[in-house]
Design a protein that fits this description.
The complex is a heterodimer of chains A (379) and B (153). Chain A is α/β, with parallel strands linked by helices and 379 residues long. Chain A has 14 helices and eleven strands. Classes of the chains: A alpha/beta (379), B mainly beta (153).
């Protein structure tokens, strides 16, 4: 594919970034991305902003960060959903031939509203919303069923939390670096069975920006390109009750397409690193399996063997993942930015040996839709 | 917080968005709710192409992109596909914790419905248990015409 990521910028992820409004966050991330690519805003010819009106508490939220992205008198469009989907749209614009560079931003400030009420509003108002489900209780239903079918244990879920919070200790952008034990997780507050507090990602603030460029532009700039080898996304049915929640058909489809684009036939051996949308501990295991990086129901056992540790065969979320900081909407774009840093060997103390990696994003309740990115050091 | 504001007083604008909506349920859900309210019966709707029966009923089949066309009476019993017991008083909850939510496959249907599990010690809920719809005494034409599902074992 004739496109690369030439710059990334992240704000630190925090519980409450009280010093910044949305546009302030975007200003910081965009300027970091421009500096990272060694280009100026004049080199950007189109902009995609990614946001959610409900989370932001304003309609047309995509335009509210416009000044900070210099979209005035430029071509700008928007995506409502996870940043990986915004980036996929940005990539397609770059590949269209009409644009040489696309700036993609994704932001949210979970601290400014109430996540339970916001995520309750994702449920169908006719059949479901009045029952009072939200993202945590709905995910708990999925976790229970997945564990029941696969035999995955609460201890295995807890290990995901231990691994990711420990990894976050070497990530200066992470919100929750912690040394915790399996017992700490199992003894933390039970919010919705089987999910303890430490099985759940926190509510966070943050903004991430990336710059996608076509191959011609890459040649002209000093930036270290990370090449985009495969991108695909796929959705499942909207209603939870219309899906088999223990299966990840949408993710499997998206991953297969992305692997074909990237020429990958054996992902377990050909992928060096994965940054995965671990909004909850069990989801990291489910998504690892959906991505074909473990047999169905086997991710928990491989985790116990240390395969997914930072020094394991296939490091998963060496950044600390969403469990260590979850700015909704931006979270998937952070996954892309982390893989870029890893492939450029600029990930500092969290660096692993990686030439090719996966970044993964999710939209919707219980993983309704998935976006998979394969990034590579080589074109 | 330190001196991140360099002497500037942090200003916060507190507000809330409260917009009244009225969502038309559509003909399919309207009939389903009417029959729940008036007859205490649960209806599913069948896809002519794949034969699946959906409860709650759908106007279009999520598998086939085909309009469902025949109503079937289903339930009132069903099987518990999965559940959770919520112990934290999350802001979206309408009831005091513990609240048990279930995903219930109504007998005769091929999909599942989200609802409350009640009339049971929450510690005795298990996946696969047989449950039955309990209708609310005071029913309106909404999903709350069913009060909850109660385990039969």
């Amino acid at each position: 594919m004739d496109a690369a990521i030439i710059g990334i910028g992240m704000t630190t992820i925090e519980k409450n970034k009280i010093a910044c409004n949305y546009a302030d966050l975007a200003w910081e991330a965009v300027n970091k991305a421009l500096a990272d690519a060694s280009i100026t805003i004049d080199d950007i010819d189109n902009v995609i902003t990614t946001s959610s009106d409900f989370w932001d508490g304003r309609t047309i939220s995509c335009m509210a960060v416009g000044d900070a992205c210099a979209l005035r008198h430029k071509n700008c469009s928007a995506v409502e959903g996870d940043g990986t989907f915004g980036a996929a749209y940005g990539l397609s614009r770059t590949l269209s031939g009409d644009y040489k560079t696309t700036l993609v931003t994704a932001h949210s400030k979970g601290s400014e509203s109430i996540s339970s009420i916001i995520t309750n509003a994702a449920f169908d108002p006719i059949y479901e919303r009045s029952l009072g489900l939200d993202m945590i209780s709905a995910s708990a239903i999925q976790a229970k069923q997945y564990m029941n079918v696969t035999g995955t244990t609460s201890e295995q879920l807890a290990l995901v939390s231990c691994k990711n919070h420990k990894n976050a200790k070497d990530n200066p952008y992470a919100q929750l670096p912690m040394d915790i034990t399996v017992n700490d997780v199992l003894n933390s507050e039970m919010i919705a069975e089987p999910l303890h507090k430490l099985d759940c990602s926190p509510v966070s603030d943050g903004c991430c920006a990336i710059i996608i460029a076509n191959a011609d532009f890459v040649k002209k700039v000093k930036a270290k390109p990370v090449w985009i080898k495969g991108v695909a996304f796929c959705s499942d049915a909207y209603f939870m009750g219309d899906r088999d929640l223990t299966k990840t058909i949408a993710l499997e489809n998206a991953a297969k397409k992305a692997y074909v684009m990237a020429g990958i036939t054996n992902p377990e051996n050909e992928i060096d690193i994965a940054e995965i949308y671990d909004a909850f501990t069990y989801q990291e295991l489910m998504w690892i399996e959906g991505l074909g990086l473990a047999e169905y129901g086997n991710a928990g056992k491989l985790l116990e063997k240390g395969i997914f540790n930072r020094d394991g065969k296939l490091p998963v979320n060496p950044s600390g993942g969403l469990l260590s900081g979850h700015p909704v909407i931006a979270a998937g774009l952070y996954r892309i930015a982390e893989i870029v840093l890893q492939i450029r060997e600029e990930a500092g103390a969290r660096q692993v040996n990686a030439k090719r990696g996966i970044a993964h994003g999710v939209n919707g309740i219980c993983g309704q839709s998935h976006c998979v990115w394969i990034l590579d050091k080589e074109k | 917080m330190g001196n991140i504001f360099y002497g500037i007083e942090p200003s916060v604008y507190k507000s809330q968005i409260n917009v009244p909506y009225q969502w038309w349920a559509g003909e399919t859900a309207s009939k389903f709710f009417m029959v729940l309210r008036d007859d205490k019966k649960i209806l599913g709707k069948q896809c002519p192409r794949c034969g699946k029966v959906y409860c709650p009923p759908k106007k279009t089949c999520p598998s086939c992109f085909t309009e469902t066309n025949s109503w079937k009476e289903v339930g009132p019993k069903g099987k518990l596909i999965s559940y959770t017991i919520v112990l934290r008083q999350l802001a979206a909850l309408q009831k005091k914790v513990p609240v048990a939510f279930g995903l219930i496959c109504i007998d005769g249907a091929d999909n599942a419905m989200l609802h409350y599990i009640g009339d049971v010690d929450v510690n005795n809920i298990t996946i696969g248990m047989e449950v039955e719809a309990v209708f609310a005494d005071d029913r309106n034409a909404t999903i709350n015409a069913i009060s909850h599902f109660k385990p039969l074992t």
